[in-house]
Write a structure and sequence with these properties.
mainly alpha, three-stranded antiparallel sheet, 10 helices, elongated
């Protein structure tokens, strides 16, 4: 019984450390190259080194940390190879989702998507960019769910995280919102028409909008890349 309680406490502590460090890394409060030692993090959270070590391992599995034995671990830099792979996988999955969605789309599904689009419009008009980006993610999740591929979003989100951290360095995120909403509306209309060709073309254009942004970020912040 005591052992089970200890495991539960350790898991809870690990989650707290992991969640905090994960948020600091993806929000760039901890920049690529930042050093993190088990001793310092243990002292910060007032916990033993084991849950910190477990949290470090989970972050390393997400390519967010580089663990170096006998040395301070560090926040991992951006890898163009990993970013390109993540974008490739995400696009491949979303194209397949679109194919499924076009075969089942109906007025009920169209209405649910329209509700999300209306909320996106309000978020832009009121300057709530964080709300917009949350609704952006929900838009893609809705297509997965309504298209009959709900589990696809798990992989999409994993791929998206690898790029989102990089895009936090972009100063143009607010200006891009209106363009993204236009893409979303065009995609919603193509789904309503049941057109696979039109839907996939719009999705490719939508996903490709990040290409120039990534090139600019790499040029302006080369020190954060591996």
């Amino acid at each position: 019984m005591l052992e089970a309680v200890e495991k539960l406490e350790r898991k809870t502590t690990t989650d707290v450390v992991f969640d905090t460090l994960h948020e600091e890394i993806v929000s760039l409060n901890l920049l690529p190259g930042s050093k993190l030692s088990e001793t310092d993090v243990s002292r910060r959270f007032g916990v033993s080194r084991q849950p910190v070590r477990d949290a470090f391992n989970r972050l390393a599995n997400l390519d967010l940390m580089l663990i170096r034995p006998q040395k301070a671990s560090e926040v991992r830099g951006f890898s163009m190879e990993r970013i390109e792979q993540a974008r490739f996988v995400r696009l491949a999955i979303e194209l397949e989702v679109i194919w499924h969605a076009c075969s089942v789309w109906d007025d009920r599904r169209a209405e649910l998507i329209e509700q999300n689009l209306s909320q996106q419009q309000i978020a832009i008009e009121t300057g709530q960019l964080e709300t917009f980006h949350s609704l952006d993610q929900q838009f893609h999740k809705l297509i997965c769910e309504l298209g009959g591929c709900p589990l696809a979003m798990e992989t999409i989100e994993e791929c998206k995280q690898k790029v989102d951290r990089l895009c936090m360095l972009s100063l143009g995120r607010g200006r891009e919102a209106a363009t993204l909403l236009k893409d979303h509306r065009k995609l919603a209309e193509a789904l309503k028409e049941g057109s696979v060709a039109k839907s996939t073309a719009i999705l490719r254009e939508h996903m490709g909008r990040l290409d120039n942004t990534i090139v600019e970020i790499r040029r302006d912040h080369s020190e954060y890349f591996e």
